[in-house]
Specification:
Number of strands: 6
Pfam families: Ribonuc_L-PSP
Protein name: RidA family protein
Order of helices and strands: EEEHEHEE
Strand order of the largest sheet: 1-2-3-6-4-5
Length: 127
Amino acid sequence: MPQTGYYAEGAPTPAGPYSHGVVANGFLYTAGFGPQDPANDHAIADNVADQTRQVLRNIQTVLAVHGLTMDDVVKSTVHLADLADFAEFNTAYEEFFTAPYPVRTTVGSQLANILVEIDVVAAFPQA
């Protein structure tokens, strides 16, 4: 199966040896993104709502390289540092998606000095 990894200009610098996204088999898979400001790679804000918005803006940047939007996302995986923040996270998350919503898995995770990390899978439209 051919796959193509890429880096998106305007997205935060990867913290390790990984691509921002990989295209394979009609899908685009993103890396997990935190709330880093691409201008300086530092996490923004100290609340989960604002961090969620920044994460999703970072993901939008990576999707846009291939002409995709949040409407093309079919699955997301969310890591929250504290599951007690779920309601605040969910309100911010919903601002970026329209029905039918992508499927989603949300788990509690130990995160390194951030409150939320998200990765998505987007499907390329059928021609």
